[in-house]
Each structure stands twice: as C-alpha cells, then as structure tokens.
Design brief:
The chain is of the alpha/beta class. It has 18 helices and 15 strands. Mean pLDDT is 85; it is low at 385-424 and 426-438.
Length: 438
C-alpha cells in the first residue's frame, strides 16, 4: 500500500521522532508531507530513504493550503493518508477525503486534560477537531487515557483504537562510550550519581518543582542533568540558583543522542503535571535506569519494580531514597521490549491500514483498482508487484480487538498482475445491494 503521512512540522519532538521510527519499520511504501518547519527530523527521515515534502505554510490559518494538499494526495494516488498532530489533522483529514483517499487515519499523540499540544482547549479548537474528525475512518489513541479523553469530547468509541507509542530499542540502548562522553562534556565524574530531567522545557513538565525536590540531595558526587530545549530554561536556571545548587545542575540543551544522555544517568525524574503517554519513562526503563514519576499512562496496569509513581509532594523523598540506594544493577525492563517495541507497534498500525482498506465503501474500492494497476505496471517493467492488502479476521475497533485481529493476520497473498480478489468481491456485494456502501 502507498501511505502518505501528514505532520505539522518536523522539529525535534516526541511525535516527530515516533514518525521517523515508524517509517523505518513499516512494510508499506511511505512518503511524508510537513505543513511547515521541516526541521532536523526531516533530514533524518530523508537520510533513511523516505521522501519528505514541505507544504510551505506561512501561518496556521492558511486556507489555500487545503487544496494544495489535496492536489498532492490526488497526484500521489495514496491508499492511506495518516495525519499526526492537531494542525495536520485539521488540514490533512478533509484534504484526504476530498481527494478520495480510501483510508484516512489520524493519531492523537498529545491531548491532556486541559490542553491539546500546549494549546488551551477552547471551543473553537474543539469544534475544528471534531468537525474534521468526520472525514477520518479511525483515530489512534496512544493510551487508554487518551481514548477516554477523546470519548468525553464526543468522538464515537467505534472510531477509536488504542495503539501505544513505540520505543525504538536501538535508539535508547545502553551506550557505555556515550555515557563517558556526555559526562566528560558536562564536567561530571564517572563515579557521580546522576539524576536526569529529560524533555521539552515547558511548564507542564514542572522541572522547576523537580529541581526544588532534588536540591537537598544534590552535592559533590550527586549531580543533575537537565536535557532539552524550551521557553522555561531561564526560569529553571534561576530555580537552581535560588536553591543553591547551580554548581551541581548541568543544562545540556536540546539533544539528539538520547541513548548517550540516558546512559549518562542513574535515575530519571519525570515530574509532568499531565501526560498522554509518558514515552521518556519507557525509554529510560529500556535503557536500564530507575525512574521516579508523577504520571505515565503507558504504565497503567503494568507491574515493574524499576519505576516508582509518587505525588509531587513526595518527590523529594523518593529522589533521596534512590540516591541513598545507589545506581544498582543496570538492567532493561523486559515489559518495554515485549509490549512497546517499535517493530510490534508499527506492525499493528500496518495491520490497521489493511483492515480499514478491506471495509466496503466507495473510497476503499479504489484500493484494489490502484494496486492492480500498479501490479500491471510493475509486471510490464519487470519489477516485483506491490503487496496486496491482507484480508484479516474481523475484529472490533477497541484496543483488545485491534490487537487480537492484528495477531491473527496471515501472511500476504501473492500478487496477481491484473486482478484483486477482495476488490472483485466488494464490487459484487455492492452490486447486490444496489450500490450502497456498508
């Protein structure tokens, strides 16, 4: 299948890096369109071999971008359009529907209790989201918490499925050389105990409160690294000065060497006010370090001895306990690899595309026609034809149904150059029903 991913921008961020990792594991052919700000992640994706195109939007309310995006989608004859993040959903979902794309999917990466991607949840924001959701076949919620928030907003439960964010295990694997390099760069001794704050420096992360909580434990031999960029940096530096621990807190800035930064630490402190998933917590556990956190929906119902959930009021005590216990044996948390590996998560998303393509509607019928045409063209050029859509066992749209159906999907059928049986069957059923789609 041909898939177009539409994303708001490709600066360094959680959703952007998730997309890059997914593209490295998908079994489908994929391209990327960014509305604006291609950024460093666009360069990474291009280096991996995937085409990235910028729509060149100059402002958020550039209505002329919608027909431009529709033309790109139509010209590419995509089987699936997958939108990521709020702004790309507002433009990408209706553009894909107007282009007649068989399957339109979006992923909700970051909806909090009061904010959507750091924007307040005003009535206009909610109205735009719900209005354009009508053009989507399915919305992927990255956690059950996100699904419940979307359901509360008014999105029908049958149009929601839970597929978690994935952890790129290779990207966060322990790196002994990286550990020493980062520590040397920041003036931290190899024997020091290191507390890490990792993520965008914004108010939601509450890193100022984390610095205050950790301050009594910071001293010679116990240091803190603050890794990330954002508007709160000056405030955080002032917090460290006010607490008298400036000499023990190193600000590392925005980093791309995540494995090395995690490897340099002994404890991750995740102090967010609210989260939709909690990817940094899982990445730290995969790297082998312990975690103290306030909220992490990804770990709801998951048993692990290496992660301790506390209130902000108890954060200082929890950090002191971890420092007193020392680094301990560094060991990756097995549940991260078994339940959240990027390969497994991407496989579930690919399976979802194929299940949606097999549903009977005027748009999905074109999938078989397009794939047959591409198979004919490939055969004429002496190239292998594209993989045809799988006809899987039918399952519900909730997380358990999605996972069960994904696990039961058989291997791909061999492509036939000029026919697509699933499309023929759909056409026959439609003819029997007088042309009505299900």
């Amino acid at each position: 299948m041909k898939v177009l991913h539409v994303i708001t921008g490709l600066g360094v961020g959680g959703a952007e890096l998730q997309l890059r990792a997914m593209l490295r594991h998908t079994r489908h052919d994929a391209d990327v369109v960014t509305l604006y700000n291609p950024g460093p992640v666009a360069d990474m994706i291009r280096a991996d071999g995937t085409a990235v195109r910028s729509l060149g939007m100059q402002k958020n309310t550039e209505v002329s971008a919608l027909p431009r995006l529709r033309r790109i989608i139509r010209a590419g004859r995509y089987d699936v359009v997958h939108a990521h993040l709020y702004r790309s959903q507002i433009y990408g979902r209706p553009a894909a529907w107007l282009a007649g794309t068989p399957v339109v999917v979006s992923t909700e990466h970051s909806i909090g209790e009061t904010h959507l991607e750091r924007r307040p949840m005003t009535r206009p924001v909610q109205a735009l989201y719900l209005g354009t959701e009508l053009f989507s076949d399915m919305t992927i919620a990255v956690s059950s918490t996100v699904r419940e928030r979307l359901t509360h907003w008014g999105i029908r439960r049958r149009k929601l499925t839970v597929i978690p964010n994935g952890v790129d295990l290779e990207r966060v694997d322990f790196d002994s050389a990286g550990r020493e390099r980062v520590r040397a760069e920041l003036g931290i001794a190899s024997t020091d105990y290191v507390v890490l704050l990792l993520g965008r420096l914004d108010k939601n992360k509450q890193f100022d409160l984390a610095i205050e909580a950790a301050a009594p434990s910071l001293r010679e031999g116990v240091k803190m690294i603050v890794a990330g960029g954002g508007p709160e940096r000056e405030h955080l530096e002032e917090t460290a000065r006010r607490c008298g621990v400036s000499a023990h807190v190193a600000f590392a800035g925005e980093r791309h060497d995540v494995a090395a930064v995690l490897s340099a630490a002994d404890l991750l402190v995740a102090s967010s006010r609210q989260e939709t998933f909690g990817l940094s917590v899982l990445e730290a556990l995969a790297n082998g370090i312990s975690v103290v956190y306030t909220t992490c929906p990804a770990l709801d119902g998951v048993q692990t001895e290496r992660a301790r959930q506390v209130s902000m009021a108890d954060m200082g005590e929890a950090i002191a306990d971890a420092v007193a216990a020392g680094p301990g044996v560094r060991q990756p948390e097995p549940v991260v690899a078994s339940d959240f590996s990027m390969a497994a998560v991407t496989r579930r998303i690919d399976d979802l595309y194929e299940r949606l393509a097999d549903r009977m509607s005027w748009r999905t019928l074109t999938t078989g026609i397009r794939q047959s045409a591409r198979a004919v063209a490939a055969a004429g050029a002496g190239r292998p034809g594209p993989r045809l859509a799988v006809v899987p066992a039918q399952g519900g749209a909730d997380s358990a149904g999605a996972r069960g159906a994904a696990d039961s999907v058989p291997g791909h059928r061999a492509a036939e150059p000029a026919r697509h049986p699933a499309a023929d069957e759909k056409l026959a059923r439609l003819a029997t029903r007088g042309g009505e789609g299900a």
